[in-house]
Amino acid sequence: MTTKNQHHHTSSSGWLRHLTALAFVALSTACLSGNALGQTAESAHQNDGPWWKHAVVYEIYPRSYQDSNGDGIGDLNGITRRLDYLQNLGVDAIWIAPMYPSPQVDFGYDISDYENVDPKYGTVADMDHLIAEGKQRNIRVLLDMVLNHTSDKHQWFIDSASSRTNPKHDWYVWNDGLPANGPNVTAYQKRFEHEGRVPPNNWISGFGGSAWEWVPAVHQFYYHKFYKQQPDLNWRNPAVEKACFDAMRFWLDRGVAGFRLDAIPTLFEDTQLRDEPDAGGINAQGDPNLKDIYTSNLPDVHDVMRRMRAMVEKYPGNRVLIGETYLPNTAALNEWYGGEKHDELQLPMDMLLGFHGDHDKLDASSFRKFINEAETQLYGSQPLFVFDNHDNVRSWDRYGDGVHNQQIARILATILFTTRSTALMWEGEELGMVTTTPTRREDVKDPIGITGWPKEKGRDGERTPMQWDSSKDAGFSDAAKTWLPVAPDYKTVNVKTEEADPNSLLNWHKKLIAMRRNDPTLRDGKQVMIDDTNPSVLSYVREGVAGNPAVVVAMNFTAQPQTVSLEPKQANVSGSTVTTLLTDAPSLQETTSLQKITLPPYASWIGSIK
Ligand code: NOJ
After folding, report:
1. pTM summary value
2. Among 510, 513, 406, 426, CA closest to 466
3. Catalytic residue among 67, 232, 287, 324
4. How far is CA 105 from the centre of its chain?
């Protein structure tokens, strides 16, 4: 399996999907103003569970959101400036990708100090200010916590790599390697020979090359799942857990509402260092594809997750743990909640729905399957759906057919906000920002796009600056040059233009979010699939809550008109008279019956049943 072709216009940029694909092989895979509502939503719904259960979480890449000091790079004060926009959209929490001091090899995912802010992004005082301003608007701040690895410039690693007797030596995963002339040493291992030693096994870095890097000062290799500048911490050493929990407490004490846990399934590696099975073929970085069964999702990680949950729960206010959990199936996802015990993460991401295959297809049957599994196979845990992030080609391009992208984006948003799931969105998704992949290798900023060119062009395309208005550089920055170029469509695809257009994708998002905030049925109603063998139309009912009407949703996943007759009885819902709550098809605006509804190509329709 490769990640090729997930892009309709370039080759792959989805290394994460590569890892996921391997795991698959291994284990089998009313137009209301959000602003006005934002003030009251929380108090109005005090009794329906913790805040995160109905939240809209919005991911921000600090480099790309808003530059406030003219250096071409976004920053914390820039985010603070845009809080009114986020409140107006209906966002409950922002997840800020790593803003800690970092050499920026992996744009912040290589942290050199967990208890500070990178000067490029501001100061700890700026973060305090952002948290306080967020609070004024009922917007919580979630930080990205990278626990699998640090930067090689973190003092912990500098100490660890200084000598075998340094007290921090065992904080990372070190190995003597094997004699290069020993039995069973492969040609691949020999490529990484140093001082007559080769890596102890065939493990590869997700970013290319051997996962083992030689350090002459200690005559040992260290393990890195990602870039060699990102050495893996040794989670078998209790001192590492303590130091990492301390770093989390530093921010919890300052009022952050929780964390998104980066690459969390990869904390542990097989102690026997067994070779990973070959999955066939060569990846974009020129390495053999492996099934990562010995370096990902090891059972040991769950003990840490339980202790972390217990630690976080000591804080008031329902702090939340979100996991970056690319997993092979719903059963594996369930384990990340702690199954029936619900004692691990509150919200491990369900990547099955939004990133479910080699080629993300808009396929009603597979969407139905994954949405339904999340409803029925997670012991009542709260699903967290997501279609977009800073590591993958934008959903606009992955699901779009090049003709109906607008409508298709509306289908994805409809699913995100009308299913029972907590919603996770990525900056610009609400605008229909496109993936703008570099066309020349010399322009690439993401290192995997440089080493993998042209098969892998990296992740710059989905990280271009947020498009605020039609002024120079889309209102992102007034620097002469921005760190990544603004996408060429910014004159029409931007916040200001879309705010003024009642039919824009941005306003579609606002309407959906406002509906869901206000309707107890959309918040908590049981979700039941109807017309559930239809290969072309995805339909479901949300059963009415507290005397409120049931809601029915139908979306046409094809380029042809589709006629459906819906039977909500399947979902314990009586009534056959409907009124349209929201649709992007003018012909469906006056729908009054559930019989013979003709959905135009890729139309979304939401109705209320009486
Ligand atoms: C997942 C992050 O989302 C990605 O951007 C990063 O490169 C890797 N983890 C490594 O930290």
Report:
1. 0.94
2. 426
3. 324
4. 20
User: Which residues lie closer than 8 Å to 242 by C-beta, 6 or more apart?
Assistant: none
Position 6 scores a pLDDT of 37
Looking at residue 57, the DSSP 8-state letter turns out to be: E
Instruction: Collect contacts of 402-410 with beta carbons under 8 A, ≥24 apart.
Output: 402/8, 403/559, 404/559, 404/601, 404/602, 405/432, 406/432, 406/505, 407/584, 407/601, 407/602, 407/603, 407/604, 408/362, 408/602, 409/505, 410/505, 410/508, 410/584, 410/602, 410/604
pLDDT, mean of residues 361-385: 96
Residue 97 C-alpha to ligand 1 middle, in angstroms? Answer: 9
> What is the 390 CA–ligand 1 centroid distance (Å)?
9
pLDDT in tens, 220-240: 999 999 999 999 999 999 999
Q: Sketch out the chain's domains with CATH numbers.
A: 8-149+238-505 (3.20.20.80), 155-223 (3.90.400.10), 525-609 (2.60.40.1180)
pLDDT of residue 570: 81
What is the DSSP track for 381-439?
PPPEEE---TTS--HHHHH--SSSHHHHHHHHHHHHHHSSSEEEEETTTTTTPPP---S
Judge whether residue 17 has pLDDT over 90: no
Query: 305: which residues sit within 8 A by CB, 6+ positions away?
Result: 264, 321, 336, 338, 344, 345
pLDDT at res. 12: 38
Does the pLDDT value for residue 598 go beyond 90?
A: yes
* Residues near 440 by beta carbon (within 8 Å), at least 6 away in sequence: none
Which residues line ligand 1 at a C-beta cut-off of 6 Å? 106, 109, 146, 226, 262-263, 324, 390-391
Annotated catalytic residue within 59, 232, 262, 519: 262
pLDDT in tens, 102-111: 999 999 999 9
CA 131 to chain centre: 21
Reference 453, options 284, 248, 308; nearest CA is 284
378-421, pLDDT tens digit by residue? Answer: 999 999 999 999 999 999 999 999 999 999 999 999 999 999 99
Is 324 an annotated catalytic residue?
yes
Residue tagged 């090049």 (tokens): 402
β-strands 174-175, 140-146 pairing: unpaired
Question: Which atom of ligand 1 is nearest to 263's Cα?
Answer: 9
Asked if residue 287 lies in contact with residue 204, where contact means CB atoms within 8 angstroms, the answer is yes
Question: Coil, helix or strand for 352?
Answer: helix
Could you give the 3-state DSSP secondary structure of residue 285? coil
Nearest one of 565, 344, 478, 467 to 70, comparing CA atoms: 478
Lookup result for tokens 């306003």: 507
Angle at 399 between CA 397 and CA 401, to 5 degrees: 80
**Has residue 2 got a pLDDT over 70?**
no
Phi, psi of 352 (to 5 degrees): -70, -40
Q: Is 262 a catalytic residue?
A: yes
Mutate which of 109, 259, 349 for ligand 1 pocket (most atoms within 8 A of beta carbon): 109
Q: What is the pLDDT of residue 569?
A: 86
Q: What is the pLDDT of residues 245-289, one digit of tens each?
A: 999 999 999 999 999 999 999 999 999 999 999 999 999 999 999
The pair of structure tokens assigned to 387 is 């279609």
Looking at residue 48, what is its pLDDT? 82
Question: How long, in residues, is the chain?
Answer: 610
β-pair partners for 425: 58
